[in-house]
Amino acid sequence: MSSIKQVINDAVEKGKEVYEKVRQPNPIRLRDLIRQIRSAKTAAEERAVVNRECAYIRLTFREEDSVWRCRNVAKLLYIHMLGYPAHFGQMECLKLIASPRFTDKRIGYLGAMLLLDERQDVHLLITNSLKNDLNSSTQFVQGLALCTLGAIASPEMSRDLAGEVERLLKSSNAYIRKKAAVCALRIILRVPELMEMFLPATRSLLSEKNHGVLITGVTLITEMCRQSPDMLAHFKKIVPNLVRILKNLIMAGYSPEHDVQGVSDPFLQVKILKLLRILGCGDSDASETMNDILAQVATNTESSKNVGNAILYETVLSIMDIKSESGLRVLAINILGRFLLNADKNIRYVALNTLLRVVHADNSAVQRHRSTILECLKDADISIRKRAMELCFALINGNNIRTMMKELITFLENAEPEFKASCSSKCVLAAEKYSPNVRWHIDTLLRVVEAAGNHVPDDVVSSTIQLISETRSEQAYAVGELWRHLSVAQLEFQPMIQVATWCIGEFGDLLLNGQADVTVVEPQLIEIYQKILWSSQCSITTKEYALTSLMKLSARLTQEVGSIQQVVSAFGSHLNIELQQRGIEYSQLFTKHNHMRGPLLERMPPFEGVRAGTAEGDKGGLAITNGLDNSPDNQSLLNDLSSANNNNIINSTHENNESNALLLLLGGMEPGEGDTVQPVPSSTTSLGSCSISAPHSSTLNADILDLLGPEPGSTAPSTTTTTSTNPAQLSQTNSSSDQGLLDGLLNNTSSATTTGIISLNASTNSNSLPANNFIISQNLSESNVPGITAYDKNGIRLDMTFEVHESVTTINMVATNTSLAQVTDFLFQAAVPKSLQLQMLSPSTTSMAPSAALTQVIKVNNPNKVPLRMRMRLSWQANGSSMQDQGEISNFPPALWQ
């Protein structure tokens, strides 16, 4: 019964198809379909028309309707060009290609070029049809096959048909040779080893008089020279031929067939100039041969129209790339200078972009067009302004620094926000390199900070602070200027306020005693600080700067110390945890430890260098040192002063040449981790807003031992330190006062507001104290495990030190950027055998300036005491490119598992 139903249903369906076929008129023409689609008023109407036509085309394809196949495929190609799917017509294209009719072949090959590509295996089915048509007696059929092969040839198809193409490349018909040369270009791109097959026929193309053959031949030779050094050496012999062809083009009379806006075949001239540039690069003889013709092209080409500008542009590139004469280079740069005066924005952009490429080759010639380049900074087009800005920085030298910097700062004031950060950084670098004197340098940096507003990057703030800090003779002038800025400052611009508060905090005495050439009274100063600290427009970072600066001023003012104490104490209940910590901790210096406030808040020594991005958590921190006296013996501990960051923290390395007995503060203990040490990821040990270091000798400074825990007079073990801090000279204090300072800090800060824990594993006390996002411990047991250098190449060095407690090994890794480039997105990955357990803590940062470093802690649990091996992978960004490397660390000290 079911089979009977199936037969009936099939009969009904067949009857419907016959009826539809009889009822359906002839398919509409392509022009009618285009008219219907264009008349659609909405996208939905257009889709309806396309879907209806595609349904009809599918029906005719299923019915094997060969009468209207060509028309239907043509409509399908138009639908494909509109972006609608048309892959179902691929096989119909193959059927049209196999048709003996030329009109069918033409549509079929067009469809193959549009619907097929080398990634689809279907295209291999037309290989035999292509071979047959390449051997056709009709040149137009051969041309269709060559065009299609040049568009979709895959490596397999290229190997199969390369012989046919090489044969047609020697044809006497210029129409076929032109298309065969284009097809040969596609083949050598897909299969470079077939290049030698076309070599004999290629040289003969340059003797052609037909310009179409010449263009394709020059293009083919250009690609061969780019891909193969052997081909480049071989074709250097044709330089005289190319010079002769180019000269004929310039000197030839009017030819209607090749004339374009009064220029004889500019397309061929451009192609020849590109090939000459490749052949003359690094070759003195070839360059000498083409010098004269390049000069003729540069002087005889009309620059009032785009075709002439295209030829001149290629001429400039050729002159600058080959070993040309100096006069010719000046001529090329003068052409670019004329381009800068062109009304067309595209030509001006091209000129700036090219000048930026060649400025290092002939800086003096580009300098002649400096005024025109500066005018481009005012252009309405943002891309032109960007290129002009980059070129201006490349032109700066010691002679024009004043003029250029003035123009660039004017540009910076009105520039878009996306320009301000990079422009201000480059202004700082240029001023540092070429500044005529220190005062001009300071004025320039202050103007840059003011002009860039809130878009100033951190390195600009750091550089400004460093310059003022290290220039003692100009500190009074700088503080006076900064006070003028601060007194009228708009509070929404944070960087200028940060620089001003930092410097006034350090050198406020110069402002008050009249050395700064400005009259300031203490109440006026306090009023400005209160305005900043309680303003809703100022960021938390700016308030950290201001609060620390105000604390510094408490040691420099004489009348308003009480007012300062009130302001600082008010921050003890601030909603922000960082400001609350600073308020509480600083308040202790007014009460229990008032006798230490003056020495602790002395001026910091001049910075030796800026390390932007270090100690990011210590914004505006206060540097506090131990109680070393000013004796010559103690001064031996205070050598080798290192750099400081941009936020009131001085990091210094202390080395004791006599005893080498320094306390290790850069270790930490997580609660619940036992004795597993987690090093501090920064070189500064931070107590809230304070940076504390404890250089120690077994014979000197017993009071420091009291501060850290052991009994006075006890001998501290010799340890190795990685701590850095401010070596400011303080009067020696006794052990009880130092212990009182620590107790005061411990007892007056609630643990509920902490952001970190300090664990002091000393014999007399073990307490917790709020820290500025760090975990700090004092490890009084010496580690005898030597460190290793795990990696040192590609501008990155990895140093590892080790701490062992039972089965847990803590690896303190320091990654240093030994290159001259900024390193960003630094990532260290590691893997160990299954018998070990690995834990990696977050790194201190992911970016490193030149000579800067980052730290990372790695913990390895080795319960079975097996030899430690580790596979590592590094990745980072430098100079705009991605770097990656991997390897194995197998030189771990045996003491880690023995």
Q: How would you explain this protein's 3D organization?
A:
This protein has about 900 residues and is an alpha+beta fold. The chain is about 50% helix and about 10% strand. It has 36 helices and 15 strands. The protein has a 5-stranded antiparallel beta sheet with strand order 8-9-10-13-12, with no helix packed on it. A 3-stranded mixed beta sheet has the order 3-5-4, with no helix packed on it. The protein has a 3-stranded antiparallel beta sheet with strand order 11-14-15, with no helix packed on it. The longest helix has 22 residues, at about 1-25. The radius of gyration is 39 Å and the shape is extended. The model is unreliable at about 20-25 and about 610-780 (pLDDT under 50).
Please give the number of β-strands: 15
Summarize model confidence as the mean pLDDT: 77
Distance between the termini: 86 Å
The major sheet is characterized as:
5 strands, antiparallel
Structural class: alpha+beta
Q: Into which percentage range does the β-strand content fall? A: 5-15%
Adjacency order of strands in the biggest sheet? 8-9-10-13-12
The low-pLDDT segments are 18-23, 610-782
Quaternary state reads: single chain
- Overall 3D shape: extended
Radius of gyration: 39 Å
How many H/I helices? Answer: 36
Helix content: 40-55%
